[in-house]
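Lecture notes, part 5. Sequence design as translation. It can be helpful to think of inverse folding as translation between two languages: the language of shapes and the language of residues. The source text, in structure tokens, appears below.
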């Protein structure tokens, strides 16, 4: 039986989604997948990044150490876990720009049956976690992807706040996560890999 190829594709300004993505990478390996962790490229100018010390610190810490995502990663993967922060209830521009590069793959039907699942964060508990995931998943419907949302398939989902669309977390002003969502991330990854196995063999 071939191993599931899992891409963990994230964007993060201040580190939250990087942490979620790192847990996902670790769990993907644990679940027996071949895993790539890749970072959606930053598009903001340095003047903007420098306005926020946490953003600057995180940008400098990851810009050379985490490989940049390309659409080849989407082509390569059987399954993709995305982790993206909310921007006014929607996906960050950096993420939209990345996804919009996938038109060629989409046109060739290469995104059909990708098993996908997404995670998010916001500053407020009701700050747009659910709408961000739903807005993001619209693109997945157009791909013909299989969305392996967590639903309420494990107690870990309740512990994260019960978002059935994907693990979500709120962060305080210092960038600390307010809920303990690690188990929820791990469950979401296990479920995504498990669903993907049914499509590749
Ligand atoms: C332009 C912008 C818009 C944002 N909009 C919201 C929002 O509507 N609601 C909210 O709770 N947080 C909002 N946030 C906070 C981010 O979602 C939060 O900083 C992010 O989830 C942290 O993830 P990261 O550390 O991976 O960057 C916004 C942040 C920015 C920069």
């Amino acid at each position: 039986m071939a191993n599931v190829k899992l891409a963990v594709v994230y964007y993060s300004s201040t580190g939250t989604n990087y942490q979620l993505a790192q847990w996902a990478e670790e769990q993907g390996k644990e679940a027996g997948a071949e895993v790539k962790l890749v970072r959606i490229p930053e598009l903001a100018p340095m003047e903007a990044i420098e306005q926020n010390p946490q953003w600057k610190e995180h940008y400098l810490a990851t810009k050379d150490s985490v490989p940049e995502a390309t659409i080849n990663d989407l082509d390569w993967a059987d399954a993709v876990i995305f982790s993206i922060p909310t921007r006014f209830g929607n996906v960050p521009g950096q993420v939209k720009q990345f996804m919009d590069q996938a038109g060629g793959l989409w046109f060739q039907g290469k995104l059909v049956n990708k098993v996908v699942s997404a995670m998010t964060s916001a500053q407020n508990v009701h700050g747009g976690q659910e709408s961000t995931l739903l807005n993001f998943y619209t693109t997945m419907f157009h791909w013909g992807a299989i969305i392996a949302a967590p639903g309420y398939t494990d107690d870990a989902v309740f512990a994260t706040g019960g978002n059935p669309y994907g693990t979500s977390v709120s962060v305080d002003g210092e960038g600390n996560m307010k809920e303990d969502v690690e188990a929820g991330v791990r469950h979401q990854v296990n479920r995504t890999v498990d669903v993907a196995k049914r499509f590749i063999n």
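The translated text above is only one of many valid answers, since several sequences can fold into similar shapes. The pocket of flavin mononucleotide is lined by residues 12-17, 85-89, 121-124, 127-128, 171, 175 (CB under 6 Å).
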